[in-house]
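User: Quick sanity check before I run a bigger batch. Here is a single chain. Can you write out its predicted 3D structure?
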Amino acid sequence: MDNPLRLEVIVASTRPERFAPVVADWFVGAARARGEFDTGVIDLIDAGLPENLTDGPAAEAFRTRLAAADGFVAVTSEYNHGYPASLKTAFDTAKHEWRAKPVGFVSYGGLSGGLRAVEQLRQVVAELHMVSVRETVSFHQAKKQFDKSGQTHDGAAIDAADRMLTQLAWWATTLRSARTNTPYPS
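Assistant: Done. Predicted structure follows.
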């Protein structure tokens, strides 16, 4: 693709001994295997975003990176039937930079596979004027779904990732064109 879509994968968990890098690395590999995306990673453990939402160099750098993106994927765990506070801080740190852009979710956890967190996040991203793609990748009992090399043989997840990336590419292309032709109303 001559002008690839900029996809930012946001790694949400910041807990010590987190499983997030395993899931995120697998998904980033799937995204980078596709020609329509230029894929970057924003790991919230390294972002330095202040929890009290004060402005500063870290928040400005974060917003600049979001503004340059055409779409997003949040890789999120589920904690106590919800999403990590670090992800809410990330969403609340920016406003206009999220608007009229698609977002997909890769979730992981125990029996629910993080799906309760994703359903809550769909409400948050709607308020930010984002488009949540329908397809979701979910890993139930995630630590059992990956081998020692960080690969999964979960056919449903592999298929869901492919479908989600196809949907993200369609939405990102369509919305990039729309934002170029007609600025999104604030």
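The mean pLDDT is 96.

User: Great, the batch can go ahead then.
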